[in-house]
């Protein structure tokens, strides 16, 4: 028995989970939010399952790491730092370099650093988090787990954009996708538990949260995923546009006089369900408004459901046949209403059908088959667990026993 940590460091936050491995038991987890502020918030799960919270100044990520370590000691979760045998870090962008998770060494660090222009809000803070842990626990092995690595099996015809080749060669401009750790977790679990590791499995995984992406997976390997160079691509999301005619961008820059950067931020942070519904980016609010008859909320749901159904149909076409469709993440796990809105668009041609009762009853972390017996393809809700995947990779790559 030994302990490993899964860490997700952002620019002003540091989320963590501590596992006992190989049992995969969660010992604690928490977050340091508002790093850099005098009123930062540190929360940690105590042994009795309650959440303990403190508001205090946290100057930087090194202070956050100290806080997390001391917090785990104070809660009696660890007695000695030596109990922690490995740390896995979530890294958003691994570019073309990483088709698997990797040991943190100078080369890994340099490559993550060189990819900062592709993920300016993430890769920098991830490195700061790694370095803060290295300072505190210099002898503990650390690994990088990339959101992009699962998608590295895409073929050039899928990852290249139809633009001049020099943009790919000089600037690494191509489809990378995201949510890869989640899609990988869902695929492994689905193929093992629902398809009994049979040969030639073909599945579609739907990671549908505020950010959302689909993945067509054959034999456990990504064939195609919906996010592109960045998470802005693919289906319509909570606040992101998803795919659009690229000339929208040029047209709006020219006709509004806004800068490209400010429009780009708006397409990421104030578009999608939020912009169309003018209610919220949260499906719970939009559902409530639609049920009261709000026309814009209804339109937002219809636009969203149609786009998602079109992706599902095109991925099914691409795979040739589909053994299983997996729903996951905030909306996929929790919203019967939004799931139904999508499946209603996939019934006539594709023959997808929900079991109405099972769909209604599946939310809040439940794992359940939600398709009816006569659905052309079975569908299951599986709660995703990216941190567990990070913990498993940490054990695998550091060869911990
Ligand atoms: P992200 O990780 O991209 O921020 P999540 O996977 O956490 O997104 O999904 C959050 C979204 O899930 C919310 O914005 C909301 O639209 C939707 N949602 C619906 N029902 C629930 C629920 N019961 N709990 C949490 N999120 C929910």
User: From N to C, what is the helix and strand string?
Assistant: EEEEEHEEHHEHHHEEEHHHHHEHHHEEH
Q: Class of the largest domain, according to the CATH hierarchy?
A: Alpha Beta
- Strand ordering within the main sheet: 5-4-3-2-1-6-8-7
Under CATH, the homologous superfamily of the largest domain reads ATPase, nucleotide binding domain
Bound molecules: adenosine-5'-diphosphate
The CATH topology of the largest domain, please? Answer: Nucleotidyltransferase, domain 5
CATH architecture call of the largest domain:
2-Layer Sandwich
Shape: globular
User: What's the N-to-C terminus distance?
Assistant: 8 Å
Output mean pLDDT: 96
How would you describe what is shown here?
There is one protein chain. With 401 residues, the chain is α/β, with parallel strands linked by helices. The chain has two domains: 2-146, ATPase, nucleotide binding domain (Nucleotidyltransferase, domain 5, 2-Layer Sandwich), CATH 3.30.420.40; 196-386, ATPase, nucleotide binding domain (Nucleotidyltransferase, domain 5, 2-Layer Sandwich). Helix content is 39%, strand content 20%. The strands form two sheets. It has an eight-stranded mixed beta sheet with strand order 5-4-3-2-1-6-8-7, with helices on both faces. Strands 11-10-9-12-14-13 form a six-stranded mixed beta sheet, sandwiched between helices. Strand 1 and strand 2 (14-21) form a beta hairpin. The longest helix is centred in the last third of the chain and has 25 residues, at 295-319. The chain is globular and about 60 Å long. It starts with a strand and ends with a helix. Adenosine-5'-diphosphate (ADP) binds at residues 209-211, 238, 281-284, 329-331, 334-335.
